[in-house]
Amino acid sequence: MVYSGVLSKGCERCRRRKTKCDQRKPGCSQCERAKTPCPGYRDLLNVMFRDDTAAVIRRVEAEHGEQILSRNFGAQRPLPPSSSSNQTSRTVAGSHSPDFNQTYHPWLISPSTQPARSLSSPIQDQAASFFFANYVLSDPPFSHTYLRWLSRLYSQEPSGGIVRSVVESVGLAGMANVYDASDLKIEAKRQYGYALARTNKALKDPIEVKADSTIVAILALGLFEVINFEDWKHYHPWKSHIEGGAAVLQLRGPEQFERELGSFLFVQLRVQLYNGCFQTNTPVPHSIRKWLKQPPATQNHDEVRYEQDGLATIAAKIIDLRVAIAHGHVKDITAIVSKALEIDKDFDKLIALFSSQYTYDTVTVASGPSNECFDSYYHVYNYLWVAQTWNSYRIIHLLLHEIILNQWEGYSSQYLSDKQDPLIVQFNHSRSLTIQRCSEICASVPYFLGCFPGQRVSSPKLTQRSLGGLMLLYPLFGGVCRSKYVDERMRRWAAGRLKYIDSSMGIRQAGLMAATLTKEISI
């Protein structure tokens, strides 16, 4: 069973003509204006997956021969080593360790390792296919390792296992939202309840709590909440997943960094945890802070070392300053600005590192701004992970300068007209930098969503667009839209992109963010 990508919901005539269909029932208005009977709409659930088994068998037979197939249908040739990207940008701004020597996929598995499935219930297989296609990073640096491990674990785990339950619940939730299928939504919530109970059981087991599969379950349960996040009251259960994850990381100890997979899972959970800390002015847990300088398991993965020793350390300092201000431990304006500028020096070191390691192209759009592109240019990156790293840098940097700008309102009015006053000079600089970082985030959006107006450039795989949408939530909402220093046009555009992420990818938290921002702008 192979996922065929996001399918058009339009009628057959509009799809054939490649025109936008308004999907009105019983027939669309485009066909009505053309005085042509509307052919109606197809059932997407029947066509969004295709049976590719025969083609896979032929391909594996050609590569390995019938003997290998008869012995183990799941064995594939190893992945070739991933080559490092040397792309020169036109504009540069910038538990047991599994065997990773084989590639495993849930759809190419040994009969001995896969429980028999009833032919009357293929929806679990479809949900898993949807999950792997949309929510699992397939870019370097750790993606091949993680994808191989997770897909193999899913295929070998018995029915009702912790990874199977969370993968299928998230996949069902995504399918239900994208295809507006109420029956799938009911099944997704039922499966989620089981996955949650299974995870809680694992957390109480002294051995299972340290397993990689438990971390995966915590991450996936958090993802389920984001996909179904339709009311701000749902923020608290999402936050509880992250808090539980921090406790698990503490129990796993330094041994988790001895393996690539352990380092990868630590970084992924830490990203979610930091988002929660920023949104709630909560200190970074000691279990995370004490491992900021922990070296990665494989020295070739420089990206992880940069992130751990760079962005994560800086972010922890910013969170500390925000918490100190919120609790009244630092009140003097000059002292706050001084502490912020000390942290800002770390960004100067980091930007030089990023500019040499993480290059990207800037593409000019002759047609100018549009729904897809905020300005007359956008960025193209080598990998989604690189784009996410740049946006992490941007939003952390602008959050630091927001601290400085927040002191502007409390600064004595008698100095505001003095353009030579050091603080006034700094306020103006911070305002310009904040707008610049927000503009850069907007320029990254077409790449994350796979929309490249006016150009034919290589894009993320279509099936990775949902993952790109997830990566944009906090940069757009917590960065661009919440900034008091960008104009209304930028905020409305960012809110529109969040609405698009909701409607086209089924990520409900994006829709809630867009609705909240639209209401604020209207007020």
Automatic annotation (TrEMBL):
**Which residue ranges does the record annotate as region Disordered?**
69-96
Q: What terms describe the molecular function in GO for this protein?
A: DNA-binding transcription factor activity, RNA polymerase II-specific; zinc ion binding
Q: Which UniProt keywords apply?
A: Nucleus
Q: Which domain of life is it from?
A: Eukaryota
Residues annotated as domain Zn(2)-C6 fungal-type: 10-38
InterPro entries with a match to the protein in the record: DHMBA_Reg_Transcription_Factor (IPR053175), Zn2-C6_fun-type_DNA-bd_sf (IPR036864), Zn2Cys6_DnaBD (IPR001138)
- Biased composition, Polar residues: where in the chain? 82-96
Keyword Ribonucleoprotein included in the entry's annotation = no
Task: Show the PROSITE patterns listed in the entry.
Answer: ZN2_CY6_FUNGAL_1, ZN2_CY6_FUNGAL_2
Q: Which PANTHER family match?
A: TRANSCRIPTION FACTOR DBAG-RELATED, ZN(II)2CYS6 TRANSCRIPTION FACTOR (EUROFUNG)-RELATED-RELATED
According to UniProt, the name of this protein is: Zn(2)-C6 fungal-type domain-containing protein
